[in-house]
Structures are given as structure tokens and as C-alpha cells.
Batch of 4 targets.
Target 1
Amino acid sequence: MVKIGVLALQGAVREHVECLAAPDTEVTIVKRTEQLEDLDGLVFPGGESTTMRRLIDKYDFFEPLKKFAESGKPVFGTCAGLILMSKEIAGEGEGHLELMDMVVERNAFGRQRESFETLMPVKDIGEDIQAVFIRAPLISEVGDNVEVLAKYGEEIVVARQGHLLACSFHPELTTDCRMHRYFATMVKEAKEQFATQAISS
Ligand code: GLN
């Protein structure tokens, strides 16, 4: 059993909770920093990254979230969640939590009415992952330690850096929860690794 939280300051929270639901996964809606202590993994949902950042500061989540990710516990960010994780935001300068070594461009696929849905291959996850893009960011640069898992045309849209996973689109707005199962497996593996380390130290 693993415990995965969904940060619930703003954005599409309930849809992630539904996609994560599985017999071996307990899902928590996170509204207070103390709840982080109990979790094995965390999801940053889509929404609006500037608003989310404001709420992160307002409710003193900044340091606890950084500490959570830096402890090696897996984090999965979708859309605005991906923006929160990036080291740099093109045209704006430094990022928010700066967890992943990459540069993002916000609203890179146009505005709300240019939202679209497609099927795309995501490495290690599936050949035909359902992806909904809504005012989505793209990843314009990645460091050597970041693995590109998917591109839409020339643009990087899914990336992984060890225990950190980020995607531009909204897998939670579809019935295809394979991205979430993949993340739950990352969480399970990290938890097992922590347990092994605890025994051998
Ligand atoms: N455009 C939004 C932002 O910059 C992200 C959109 C989304 O999460 N659907 O925060």
C-alpha cells in the first residue's frame, strides 16, 4: 500500500484522485502542510500556476514541498503542476519550486479555445496515451539528467528526472489512467528503496 496526495490549493484535484484510485493506493487530498509527512508521493494538478504559487506562499507550503521532493519522494506535475516544478520559465526567469532541470514555456499551444485532445506514445507507458492539452506549457530545454518520455511534434511534453515526473497535458481528464499507474509504480519503488536503506543502515 502506498499513500499518494494531491495538492489541493487550486485546480483539477478530484479528477486526479479518481485516476489514482486503486486497491494498493490510498489517496489523500492535501490542504495542510502536516499532511505531507504521511505521504509516499504527491501530485501537483493542473490549474493556473501563478495562482497556485500565490496560495503555496500564503499557506506556507513552499519549504515543505521543496523538502518533500528533495527527500526523494516522487512528485508528478501535470500542466500548471509541471510549471511549478521547472527550474526556469521562459520570458519570466526563475521558476517556482525549481525541482526539475528544465525550462518551460507557458501557454505554448495557444489559448483555451485552442485546446485539443490527441493520442500519443509515451516511453515506458503506452503507444496511445490519451492527452488533453489546455493552455498547456511545453518543455523547451532539459538538463542531461532529465529523460524525455514524450514529444508532440518537436516539442517535449513529458519528462522524468529520477523520482520526478512532469507532463504538459491532462491525463486526469480522460479515462486513460496509465500515467497515474506509472507514477504509482514509481512511488512503490521509491518506498521499497527507502525501506531497504533503513534496514541496511
Ligand atoms: N496556462 C496555465 C498556467 O500557466 C496552465 C494551464 C493548465 O494547467 N491547464 O499556469
Note: The two ends are 23 Å apart (CA to CA).
Target 2
Amino acid sequence: MCLTGQYIHFQVHKCALSSNNSMVCFHCNSYCKLDSGWVRSVRPQKENLFLHVNDGSSLQSLQVVASSELNHRLLTFGSAVEISGSLVTSPSRKQEVELQADQIDVVGECNPVDFPFKIKKKHGLEYIRQFPHLRCRTNAFSSLLRIRSEATAAIQQYFKEKGFIQVHTPVLTSNDCEGAGELFQVEVSSKNQDEEGHQHFFSVPAYLTVSGQLHLEVMAGAFPGVYTFGPTFRAENSQSRRHLAEFYMVEAEISFTQSLEDLMKVMEDLFRSTTEHLLDQCPEDVALYHKHVITYTEAINILNSSSKKFAFKTDWGCDLQTEHEKYLVKHCGDFPLFVTDYPYALKPFYARDNQDQPLHTAAAVDLLVPGVGEMCGGSLREDRLDLLKTRLAQAGLDEAYGWYLDLRRFGSVPHGGFGMGFERYLQCVLGVDNIKDVIPFPRYSRSCLL
Ligand code: 4AD
């Protein structure tokens, strides 16, 4: 077990100490050996040298006490150490236990002059973003990475408990699911081109996926619920605070579904259970939940009756921009907000036509959240073959999507699904302003560091 893990374990289980650098827990019988971590602070005093050492397993650091005679020149902020000693009850009230070190070996030095992070200084996220190779050593980013990992586990657990099948949808694909042309085309190296320089790896152009939805819809023809959770790519030329060229999306498809309410229930449940898990596992980080539902038409009315001047148009039929989404969330009490029934023309070919409504809308829903705007987008899928055929033909896509029409021909079921941007979810829960600060290696227009 790790060093801080052991410390926490000790606190929780009130383990007995032994004298030989180890401890045995009489509750769970685990046997732990003290070992290694990174120095977070160094305080030389008259008789003793006090260090705080952290191993990345939590925000907590273990206090290490060594003799002041120890040469501490190399024990600087950020250096990597291996320690042996005994875990004892601490005389101070600040911690229950501390490690009395017999020996401290510096296994990796860290020159404090060159190291971009300084002891006891709180660096802004924008500053630490400049060091993608070192930012995991800061409290803020190591905390984010633990939360990402917990949220990933919670999402998998949610779908497993609900009986969804996880499908590994492909990263390389020949479709542009969203039809927006925001595709990264995959080129083969010159070695794999023919004499005229043509690519011949796949006989059709291949792209990095913009969404696994269409592949999930294939599987929705055989399973009640399917999901995928993987990297997604969009060649959007945007420097905004909520767009990445590579992001992780959780997508689900639910068969035998005919109502947006059913979809919203899963979207809300997923959001709620993942957040509850985070609150439980990482209590210091999060707090929220409530919801509202309005239609797109109501949203437009709210925007048009506001005295606020928006940069983008708010006529019926215009897409909601981030400024509109953020305003709507604020207007509705700063809680998560569902917006339903968007204009048909704004939605991709697969969205179900709400034929019975006076204004031409699609059965589509977005979940907007505070500080971020759109976090999830979903729709019921058009399951009526004739309507789908017409729409694909109008878009000139009928030849390419013959296979998609087959899904409606053979044992089709009413279904719907949604996608949740994982980074936007983390932005929302953690209140992080810029999406680049919730992903280990951000890729965006004009930036592909490391
Ligand atoms: O609304 P979008 O484009 O929907 C789809 O891709 C559907 N095919 C999903 C489905 O129904 N299976 O994207 C879904 C979510 C958005 O709500 C947003 O959270 C996130 O993906 N997203 C992005 N996140 C970061 N950077 C970008 N460039 C993003 N584009 C979309």
C-alpha cells in the first residue's frame, strides 16, 4: 500500500504500530511497508527536520521527522524520496501519526530554481497549463486526475448496474455522424501510399470519429441498452473555453424507448449517480443538483424578453449559443436545465421529427449546466423508414447511409440516445472555467503539445 494510503488507512482503522518500518492492521490484516513519495515541504528546526511527503494517492501528506543532523541540502520541494523509519503516534494535534525517519534517500533531485512550481505558492490553472509534463505534480491537477479516474469508474458502474452493454465503437470510421464536416481525415505515411502518392489503406477516406452514435445504433438493434465511453475528435477551429479537438464522450443508446422523458431519466440518473459517487469518494470537491425542463420555443421567448443584448441572434430557428445557454441556466435559478424540441432544421438527419407540433421541431434534448452551457445532447432517433429515407435523400446522403436504412428495415425498434462530454461534466462539477484544465493533454486548434 502507498504511503499516504497507509496514513489514511491508519486513521480509519486505528492500526497498531510495530517497530520495524511496518504496521499490521488488526481489522483487515493488511501489512504495509513504508516507502516513497515527493517532498511537499521542508522545515529545518533546532533538533529536528520536518518534512511533508505526498505519494499522489490523496491530497494528504505524511509528516516525516528526521534528525536535524541529516544533510537536507537535496531535500527540496518536489524531490523524490524513499524513507525508512517507524510510524509513531504524533505528539502534535495536527496529525495522529508521523513517520520517524531512520534514513531518507533522495532518489530524484529537484532543483527549486528551475522547477516552475514554488513551495507554498498557489499557482493559477492558466499558469500550470503551460507545463503539461509537470502539472500532475501540483495539488490542483493531481486532484483533478483522481477525480477523473473516480468519475470514469462511476460511469462504468452506473451502466453496469443498469444492465447496459459496453461497446468499443471504432476510432477510425468512414462516417461523419454529425454531418458538420468537422472531421480529422486520417492519412497513411508515405510508405503506405501507391506510386502516385494515393492512399490505399482503406478503399474509402477514413476519419477519426466525431461520435460513436451510429455504431451504437447498430447494437441497439440487438440489445436493450448499449453505451460507449472513449475519445472523440472534432476539427472545430475554436479556442473557446469549452471546445477541445479531442475529448471523451459517454454515449448511450436505449432501445424500446419512445419518449424524451425516458431519455431524460437516464441522463439525469447518470449525472446524479456519478456526482453522488464523486461526493462520496472525493467529498472536498463537489456540490450541486436540481433540474428544470423548458422547450426550445420557451427558451427563445425567455431570451427575447430579456433586456440583455446578445451578440448572436435569438430568432426562432437560430441555434442556441453559449451566451444564450449560460443566460438560460442563470435565468432558471442556476441549476441544470433541459431544453427540448429544437427546430428540426438544426438537428442532424437521425433526429426524430415531432410531426404533431405546430412548429417544425425534432424530439431532441440538451442538458445545460451552470458555468458551461450544453453538457449533454440527445434525441429520439427517426425510426420511420419513409421519413428517414426522405431526409437522407434531401441531404444527398442516401447512398452512403443505405446500411443505416437497413437498421430500420430489419427488426427496428424505437430508440433514442445521448452523449455527455466528459470534460464538460468535470468542468461543471468542479467549477473549472477552462476545459483545457480538466484533461491531461489538451488538444485544440493550433496546439498539440507533447
Ligand atoms: O451534441 P453532440 O455533438 O452530439 C453528438 O455527438 C451525438 N451524436 C451524441 C449522441 O446522441 N450519441 O455532442 C455531445 C456532447 C455535447 O453535449 C458536449 O458535452 C460534448 O459532447 N462536446 C464537446 N466537448 C468538448 N469539445 C468539443 N469540441 C465538443 N463537442 C461536443
Note: The first strand starts at residue 16 and ends at 17.
Target 3
Amino acid sequence: KSLTIGLIPADGIGKEVIPAARTAIEAVGSDLPPTRFVDLIAGFETFTRTGVALPEETVESLQNECDCALFGSVSSPSKKVVGYSSPIVALRKKLDLYANIRPVLSVSPNPGESSAVDMIVVRENTECLYIKQEQQTIGEHGKEARATRLITERASSRIGRMAYELAKARPRKHLTIIHKSNVLSVTDGLFRESVRALHEKYPEVTVAEQLVDSAVYRLFREPQIYDVMVAPNLYGDILSDAAAALVGSLGVVPSVNAGDNFVMGEPVHGSAPDIFGQNIANPIASIRSAALMLRHLGYMKGADRIDLAVDSVVRDGQLLTPDLGGKAKTSEVVEAIVKKI
Ligand code: NAI
Ligand code: MG
């Protein structure tokens, strides 16, 4: 068996941190099958150069040639540019990456410390209010705007299954279903019931429910109560950014976009034009995204080796980039992590 990984650095610091993730994967060596990398393009720079943000060759390579991919970050124009639309949104659609999985872990996890944040936010990625069916009309009292919110049993069940599987593999095996079915009893009710219905297939997982507003409150008051959270698209979007704020720099938070046939690692941060080109971007979010992607594919040993190396470098505290209060360069952090691997 072999492993083919597509690399799409895209814009800004994506060009610095995706090569860093590649270096970390290469360092794992024999705990992974023979690995091949395919360099692919997408993003705003690609758009300004070629007129398309997501070239057909990139999509074809991902669909036909690659087992998984790493995506850096895209710069989006601040004003609407005719013909441009986000390649990451398009990729999620084309590859049916219906789950956005974001583990949130304290930067310096001291084993045994009970206040440490260690949870995963699992966000449904394809429906809810983000189907973008909005209309504005003129009513009796002026302008009126409406949006349609779609929740299906199919999408709720498949995100639910993903969340139970993740919970089952963790020490605490605890799942919290996020909803607001006291108000939106039809849509959120369907989400809640669909996820609940799967519980009998996962008896080892304990299940709790939380209304989304109080979930945010408790997230800030006592984040340690959460293990795996599963939420519809909009709530999940907000919760996952809020959870990331608990652990400090955006430069350390990884994610994957996953479907049944493909997984794509992606750091949560953007293209960071303010620090691009200075060799000071924190590569940890991308390196952890690579580990998460490998874990999702079942390469636990390789993923563990990468994560443990990152933990150890962070705990050492000697080589940290400026976003974590250090003075180290991107390349020095990568070198230290590779040595630990
Ligand atoms: P950003 O995430 O690029 O940067 C926010 C702040 O965090 C900046 O001060 C930046 O220097 C810092 N930062 C981010 N990643 C870092 C890292 N790895 N190491 C150290 N510091 C880091 O968000 P911003 O500034 O709002 O957006 C910049 C561009 O990125 C925009 O064009 C935006 O549309 C795009 N963006 C793309 C995303 C994606 O590709 N998924 C997500 C968020 C923004
Ligand atoms: Mg967001």
C-alpha cells in the first residue's frame, strides 16, 4: 500500500506552513506507507494569475490520484471580485466533505491537569442556514429578509455517526449534542432526534444535550466538561471559533474536513498577510492538521509521533514563534519538531 497526499498551500503563510507539514510527515518514515506528495494550486493568487480559483486539474488530481490532502489558507478579497469564489467552499462540496472536525487542546497540556481543555467540535458542513437560500421582499412595513434553514435526517445521521465514532475512540467517550430545539423544535428537533437515534449502536458512549446558548456559557466557564460536541452548521461554526479562543493562538488550532471517501487537513487560521514572508508563522496548526488527517485514515502510530513531538517542543518552551510569546523562526520550530519525531 502507498499513500498519496495532495498539497495545496494556496495563499500567504499557507506557502510557509504547508511545506512545514510535509517535512513533519516525511520525518515519520517507516510508520507510514511509502508516501508521495502532489503539488496542487488554488486560491486568490491562482485566480489573479489564471482566472480560476480552483483549477480543474487540482480537483481531478484530488479525486483520482490522492488519498487525502492538506490545504493551507486562502486570501479573500475584501470587496466582491467578479468570478471569484472560495476554493475551500467549492472543495468541500465537490469532495463531499460533510464534517468539519476541530480538536481544541490546551497549548501546553500538562498530563493530569484537570483544567486542561481537550475536546473536539464536530460541525455539520453542508446544510443548515448555509445553504444560502435568502430572499428580500418589501412587506407592509418595509424591507423583509428571509433565510431557509435545511436540516435533513441523512446529513444529521452521518455527522452523528462521525461524532460517535470519534467519541468512542477517546478515553472519556462522551458526546454532547448541541441544539436549540426548545425554540426550533422542527429543525433542531430533527437534528437532535437523528443523532439520539444512533445511541443504541454506541452503548459505550455517554450522551448529553445542551442548548447552544448555554453551551457557549459553559464552554467559557468550565471547558473541561466537554469531550466531543456535535452541532448543526451555524452553531458549529460559532462554537468552533469560540473554542479555539480558549487555547490562545490561532496558530496552533488544526482541523480536518472529512467525508466518507476523502479527508483534507486545514489549519484554522487564514493567510495572515501581516506576517507573511518573514519566516515567523507558527507551523503547529498545519503540522497538527497533518497528524489529524493521518489519524482519520487510521495511521495512529504516525499521527501520535507527530503530536507527541509537537507537545514536547511546546512544553520545552524554548522554541516558540512570536504568537506564543517566543522568538523562534518557523524553520527553527519545524527543525525541533522533526528532531523529536
Ligand atoms: P488570519 O487568521 O489570517 O490572521 C489573524 C491574526 O492571527 C493575524 O494577526 C495573524 O498574523 C495571526 N495568525 C494567523 N495564523 C497564524 C500563524 N500560523 N502563526 C502566527 N500568527 C498567526 O485572519 P485575518 O487576518 O482575518 O484574514 C487574513 C486573510 O485570510 C483574509 O483574506 C481572510 O479572508 C483569509 N482567511 C482565510 C481562512 C481560510 O483559508 N480558511 C480563514 C480565515 C481568514
Ligand atoms: Mg468560522
Note: The chain has two domains: 1-106+254-341, 118-246.
Target 4
Amino acid sequence: SYRPLMGVKAYDLTGRTAFVTGAASGIGRACAVLLAGAGAIVHGADLDAPGLHETATLIKDLGGTARTHHLDVTDRVQVRQAVESCERLDVMAAVAGIMHRSPVLETRDEDLDRVLNVNFKGVLYACQEAARLMIAHDSGGSIVTMASGAVDTGGPGLLCYGAAKAAVVQLTKTLANEVGRYGIRVNAVAPGWIRTPMTDRHDADAQEHTEALMSRMSPLGRVGAPEDVAHAVLHLASDASAFTTGQILRPNGGVAMP
Ligand code: NAD
């Protein structure tokens, strides 16, 4: 029978293992560091080897335990091997993703394929391999996917990106229904505008303009930081959210959704 850990202890991940894709940068790095800070052994995966190494160093400097997997999330075999190398798996955070903008009438097949491959299939493979291992070990677990506020709002140029993120939401709800009986929870995080390398406009004026605009849209009057999303992921990863599955959590500063 279910005996909840009370209060802050519910956020303790000591003795748990977490796998984080996209761990070399931005939100994925913040998730890897926070989950390690909560006590988990963290396996970080990314295409960017130097960035991964930096994340692992950050974790080790904080006294945590990190392993790295230099891989492409669109390669199912690489993802399987990396996930299977974990002795146990309690948490999967499928964060890796890319941005792409093109008007619908100028969108090419190769744009759509690339974005769906990384942002949808990359998340799908991570979810499938994680759920398989959790079921095999009969250990339960928590899977967190990375959607986006773009799913709610749409937006010019966001056809490929938003379609992939909408597919991630569908994956999340479907998988949650299918694996709940194994004690596995599946939830999505749909952040608003977060300051990361993905949203860097490489021009100080343009950046300031965008951030001022985004800040005005939030009742909290600021843009998001990677840590704001990582805390939402920690909540979903931990026993604090033990009765939450198939949901979308929106760390977006309260930006009004249509
Ligand atoms: P980021 O660019 O800082 O980090 C993305 C990471 O994913 C990078 O380290 C990159 O190397 C990795 N990656 C990309 N393709 C990969 C592949 N094929 N295989 C392995 N790793 C790969 O971006 P971020 O802002 O931290 O975004 C992280 C996630 O959050 C993405 O899924 C993004 O769509 C989502 N998101 C971001 C924002 C935002 O405003 N920054 C808002 C909503 C959702």
C-alpha cells in the first residue's frame, strides 16, 4: 500500500537514478544539476560532449554523482544502450530539443523531418527505453517530457516546432494511460520563454527587446530561468507528485493562455 513521504522528504531522490537528455545546456543542464542536488545519480546525455563534461563537473563540484553519454537522441540504438547501461532507472527527463522557425508556406520536408526527429522521436525513444527498463525492473518510475507553451499559443513560424511539441503532449498522455499499472507516471512540462542558448538572439539590443516584451506578458514581470523549469521537473520526478500523471505543468510566469 502507498505510504507517502511527507513534506520536503518527498523531494529527496537519494538512492534513485535519473537520466536527462539535453543535459549539456540550458534547461537540461539545470535539471541534471537539480536532480543530482536532490540526491539522484544522474546520467546526462547530449550531442555536445564539452557541454556534457561541464555539466558533470558542476554536479561533481556540488558533491553529486554524474555519468555522461555522448549520443544523438534520434538514434534509437544509442539511446537504448545508454539507458540500459543504468543499473536502475527511476527518472527519465527527456529534455533535448532544437528550435526551428519557418512560415508554413516556406516549410520544407527536410525542416519538418529534422524537427520531428529530434523533438518528437528523440523524446519517444527516451520514453520507450525508460519505460521498458522500469517495467523490466518492476521499479515504477517517473518520466518527464519537454513540451512547450507553443502548444497552447501557436505562433508565427512555429509549425514544425509546435507540431513536434503537440506530439510530445499526445505521447505523454497516451503513455501515462498505458504504464500507470506498472507504477510509472508520465508528465510533461510546457515552459514559457526561458533564457537559454536556444533563446539567445546573439544581439544585445534584440535580446533586451525580446526579454522586455516577454517580461511584460508575465504577471510576475520577468522571463524564466532554466532553474524555474528544473524545479517543475523535480516536482514531477519526485514522490511529491505521486498522484499526478498524464498532466502538463506550465512554468511560464503565468502568461495568459488562449
Ligand atoms: P538548449 O539549446 O540550451 O539545450 C538543448 C540541448 O539539447 C543542447 O545541449 C543540445 O546539444 C541538445 N540536443 C539537441 N539535439 C540533440 C540530439 N539530436 N541529440 C542529443 N542532444 C541534442 O535549449 P533549452 O532552451 O535548454 O531547451 C531544452 C528543451 O526545452 C527543448 O526541448 C526546448 O524545446 C524546450 N523549451 C525551451 C524553451 C525556452 O524558452 N528556452 C521554452 C519551451 C520549451
Note: The longest strand covers residues 41-46.
